[in-house]
Amino acid sequence: MSADRSEDRGVEQSLQLDGYLPYRLSVASNAVSGLIARAYEDRFALSIPQWRLICVLAEDGGLTQVQIVTRTVMDKVTVSRAAQGLVRRRLVGRSENKSDGRSHVLALTPAGRSLHAEIAPLALAYEAALIAGLSPEDVVLLKRLLGRLQAAAGQLSGESAPPAGLG
What we know:
The chain is 63% helix and 7% strand. By secondary structure, the chain is mainly alpha-helical.
């Protein structure tokens, strides 16, 4: 059945994976994450979740694991494992949450802040290399469109809005 005949009968075209936006986003994300993950693992012995946790704590200060889950859109187990590894390496400290005794606050240690300061320029260099072929206007548009797609996905999944700082 040709595409023309299926359109004539009001039947949608068949799914073409290379043209399917969710697939393309996933493939692009995996390619970028894989590239950066290798660099962080090779040079700093960090996983992507560990790097995200370090970055969020550098930006936001001390947070509970629940706050980190919300901020990063990573699942609880991933955040917990990342935090445990960083605590073992003394890059993150864990202290009592004075407002809720059932949880702890995670914060970067001086060693964690130092590592963040070392990695941040590398992260920015990777970003610059990835967007080198795009105009500044294209980058702004891409970020805006990604935020809109994330918000739409959140609404479809029952969330009212994207997590703070991610939309």
